Amino acid sequence: MKISVIGCGYLGAVHAASMAEIGHTVVGVDVDEEKIALLAAGKAPFVEPEFDEMLARNVEAGRLTFTTDFSQVSDAQVHFIGVGTPQGPDGSADMTYVNAALDSLLPHMGQADGPSIVVGKSTVPVGTADSIEQRVVDAGAILIWNPEFLRESFAVQDTLRPDRLVYGVSKDAERAEVSQRILDEVYATILELDTPRLIMDFPTAELVKVSANSFLAMKISYINAMAEICDATGADVTMLAEAIGLDDRIGKKFLRAGIGYGGGCLPKDTRAFQARTEQLGLNSLDFMSDINAINDRRRKHAADLAIEALGGDVTGKRIALLGAAFKPNTDDMRNSPSIDIAKMLRDAGADIVITDPAAGPVLKVRRPDVPVADTAHEAIKGAEATLLLTEWDEFKNLDPTTLEPAGKIVIDGRNSLDPDTWKNAGWTYYGMGRN
Ligand code: UGA
């Protein structure tokens, strides 16, 4: 089947390559010429495990092409919309790219054999699909909403082996039936794996996405609130999380306390969801302000802890920051807690140095004013304090006896180090809700 994917960021590029991997002929479209040139050459514009090889393999096989020219999509039967919905000034989702994608796509559809479908994957405010359906129908296609749940750093796995597929379908029974049948064909190999597939209306499908992300954010902020209480009472949040997580109604996942969530999704989506409910005249998500406030506090807490551990004044003191990406195995620094903490420490006068195996090289290009070390050993050499901010394996596995700091203070922002190993090597260890 010929497929187009509009928007070649994390979501779109991975989706395009994954669809080619399962045998479709795919054209990826984006307005960013530089990104398209890289992708067309089979080169990944970002760090994502398994993606590089899959991209190169499918480009080479001729099943996957990339272009900035929308006329190339005209004979595709399926058009995925995977453009970004960034944060608007009032917290709500900015729909400029979704609207622009539709404006560019709709006039070019219609040369496929059989009916065409437009598949919404972008994270949008509830009500979007209903509001754009008629435009899609007028252009001769059928709209279906199919939210994406991939996690960065597991993007390929999550696309090819998702834990569920959600289809939001039209109220019109015939459109619903046709669009569902075509999307089933697209995902045939995934459905063969007994992947649960849930069919629902447009608003429910849109809500599944944002409510899942808000719930995940809530879990993280909940355990971080517990970390604050543990700090005040001498309790240990990692033991607490393990014990409550064994209750399978609660579950162990997303209960890692630390410096909180970052990235291009959770912070943005929770705010946009809250803004949307306010537009609807509801205060149902007022508690999300607390969830986000707890999250923001974690960053400040880590910076304050470093300042306090160094005697209240960090002016001119070298501080090593291990990690810049918002989580390991990616170079993505969007809304990264580490970057915020780096800024806070720098503003307080510290002489910071950052290291990150994937985001470090990007930081060197984008921010030549920020000192970036190639390795943790290099960053820590001569540092008066060390903060672990992204839990890359190579940081977790550091042997503290091999390091040459000026001061043996370590702040474990992700509770990823073994406190005894560091304490036995003479370091003063500070965890997040555990000591
Ligand atoms: C998130 C969701 O997990 C995906 O299901 C969703 O598809 C995606 O957003 C999206 O909307 O596109 P992602 O942003 O890649 O995926 O990252 P997560 O793995 O959810 O991690 C988010 C942040 O939470 C990271 O900064 C991570 O370090 C932090 N986190 C995660 C914690 O602080 N504690 C935890 O226990 C888990």
Question: Would you spell out the secondary-structure blueprint of this structure?
Answer:
Layout: E1 2-6, H1 10-21, E2 25-29, H2 33-40, H3 51-60, E3 64-67, E4 78-81, H4 96-105, E5 116-120, H5 128-138, E6 141-145, H6 155-160, E7 165-169, H7 173-186, H8 188-191, E8 197-201, H9 202-233, H10 237-245, H11 266-279, H12 287-309, E9 318-322, H13 337-347, E10 351-355, H14 359-366, H15 376-380, E11 385-388, H16 393-396, E12 409-412, H17 419-424, E13 428-430
Parallel strand pairs: 1-2, 1-4, 2-3, 4-5, 5-6, 7-8, 9-10, 9-11, 11-12, 12-13
The structure holds uridine-5'-diphosphate-glucuronic acid (UGA).
Low-confidence stretches are none
Q: Over the alpha carbons, how many angstroms does the gyration radius reach?
A: 23 Å
Structural category is: alpha/beta
The small molecules bound here are: uridine-5'-diphosphate-glucuronic acid
What is the CATH architecture descriptor of the largest domain? 3-Layer(aba) Sandwich
Instruction: Output the strand order for the largest sheet.
Output: 3-2-1-4-5-6
Overall pLDDT confidence: 97
